[in-house]
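Schema walk-through. Below, the input block comes first and the output block second. Nothing else is stored per chain. Lengths vary across the set, and this one has 101 residues.
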Amino acid sequence: MQKLGEDVVDVLRTIYDPEIPVDIYELGLVYDVNVSEEGDVHVLMTLTSPNCPVAESLPVEVEEKVKTIDIVTTAEVEITFDPPWTKDMMSEEARLELGMF
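--- output ---
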């Protein structure tokens, strides 16, 4: 199932926060990806803030795109604000892209 996990991460890297031109994975919004032998996927993620304008649509987009992977049987997205997202959670690549070095 490692391959499925990698495929899920590849899909997550195609989803962008509309306010920041960096994908949600590199932004550090994805806290955990769990996949089962049966093809069930659970994504634990956060948003840049509880008042994020895409709070309703982004989790749905993540779920729908993960479901496009052939061997995924179910996809569930769980939103958490614990721990709260900070800029420190961004990858070096994201910080470079945003000129934060």
